[in-house]
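ok trying this again, last paste got cut off
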Amino acid sequence: MLTTLGAIVVGTGLWLWILRRYDRIEPEALRYLLMVAVLGGLGSVSVAVLFNEAVTSLLDIRVNLFDNALRVGVVRLLIFSLFVGLNEEICKAVATVYTTRRFGDLNEPIDAMIYAMTVALGFASIENLIYATRFGNEVLLVRFLWPVPAHMAYAAVWGYGLARARFVYPERSRISVMWPSVLLAAVVHAAANFLLFLQATITAMISLAAVGALAYLAHLRLRKLVAESPFLEPGECPNCRNLNSPDATECVYCGTVLLDTTMFVNCPCGQARISVTDGNCHVCGRSFEEASVAATQSGNLGLEKSV
């Protein structure tokens, strides 16, 4: 058991280290991430396993799906895959919303994806403990190379939805904003599982390719959300952290595209970054809309004088 726990701690720590490297501007405290991973992971796994077992009994699935899945029948296999996808993604999403409200410090858009993927990591790591107990430690390496990043990639889909709920639509309930992304993640999760259950080399490769594509999309969205940080200075490059002029469109030091943000943007006064929804500039005191109008009027006035 000590060997199992040690392997799980090492594998989980490695993935957490990789994930945390994206959080470069205002990194989350490690204690918050660990609390969310443990509490969110335990809570979501407990509920998900309970419902998965209930549906397994209801559908009379009594075989090891990874050994004899085709004996279950394609229809029941599809129903089970859809249920597991929905069940697990909903459980992880609810656990993330609940735990981050109490233990997280969700003050940057990227934090939403970091916490979502951290809960998924906790979920998958606890799931690994269950699998290792049933099938032996030899399953851990494969699971840390495939199911663990898969769970994190699924969570990245609705983690981006959580970022939008928190910073783009704060006046709406998070469920109303997140549910399309949760549903999308659940469908992808179900499809990946179904393809694996078919136990054909081609379907397994398709499943792996889909998860790989989703992981790459998560990588791109994490990089995009780094640039949305309200803690960046106007013109500051989110990649190399060097300062450019506030209206620069490309970093002169590393070539990173600037100003490609939708949640936090440079105030037209050029001296601060503010939220596009409800933030006021701490320098000029105006909201984004007010500052935009003022900047437009100032530009028009200057044009009239020059004419």
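PB: full thing came through this time. DSSP finds ten helices and two strands in the chain.
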